[in-house]
Design a protein that fits this description.
Elements: H1 2-29, H2 34-53, H3 68-83, H4 87-95, H5 97-100
Length: 101
């Protein structure tokens, strides 16, 4: 449900905030220079932001609620740009639109 998804999102946000706070505390208590601390924090935030941009189907629990038809159409639209790079499959998709499904 949407409520469960929102709860999970809040939990992930809380875990991220706690992890970042713990990293800051580690850097501070170990006397890491401000310059290096900032570089480390920026790098970690960068890695997290790039990771969060890559959302896999398995990460989206609400997709399990889709009908078989909707799931098939989603799979087709997700994979079609990748498959169309291959010359044979690209030509095959033009000749027979339903075959790619």
């Amino acid at each position: 449900s949407i409520t469960a998804a929102m709860t999970q999102l809040r939990s992930l946000s809380w875990k991220f905030d706690k992890s970042l706070s713990l990293l800051r505390k580690y850097l501070r208590t170990n006397g890491i220079s401000p310059v290096l601390s900032i570089r480390i924090l920026r790098y970690v935030e960068y890695k997290i932001s790039t990771k969060s941009q890559d959302v896999r189907e398995s990460d989206v629990q609400l997709l399990t609620m889709l009908s078989d038809q909707l799931r098939m159409e989603l799979t087709q639209e997700t994979n079609e740009p990748i498959l169309s790079h291959h010359p044979f499959l690209s030509h095959f998709a033009i000749v027979s639109r339903n075959a790619i499904k």
